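R.M. (postdoc): so does anyone remember the format we settled on? I'll just put the structure tokens first.
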């Protein structure tokens, strides 16, 4: 990701957060946003049917997502919108804690590079 893009987004999130800048408010809104992302994925499976989930035992490190099909345009737009909200509240939380979002991503990238498949995520 581009440094300028992340910094600009974090600054914009800090300037447009309208209501309460309380860290408790941000945390609760971030949790709700995460639930909405999950609900949108479930709706793509259950209501739309554009994707399916194959719920079988997953052998270790096969790389399978257990997803079948691909998102239709409507479901993709909805999921991307909800993911944007989640990222917005993550950037707002970074602002509240005086942490740069870029530093968080860079640190995690380094961790992934160092540990590779042994990061056990």
């Amino acid at each position: 990701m581009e440094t300028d893009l992340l910094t600009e987004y974090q600054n914009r999130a800090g300037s447009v957060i309208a209501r309460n800048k309380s860290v408790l408010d941000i945390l609760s809104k971030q949790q709700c946003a995460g639930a909405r992302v999950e609900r949108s994925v479930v709706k793509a499976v259950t209501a739309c049917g554009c994707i399916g989930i194959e719920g079988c035992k997953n052998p270790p490190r096969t790389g399978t997502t257990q997803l079948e099909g691909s998102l239709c345009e409507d479901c993709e737009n909805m999921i991307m919108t909800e993911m944007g909200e989640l990222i917005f509240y993550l950037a707002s939380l970074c602002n509240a804690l005086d942490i740069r979002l870029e530093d968080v991503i860079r640190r995690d990238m380094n961790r992934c590079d160092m540990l590779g498949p042994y990061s056990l995520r």
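R.M.: ...and that's the designed sequence above, right after the tokens. Also worth knowing: The first strand starts at residue 51 and ends at 53. The chain has one domain: 3-119.
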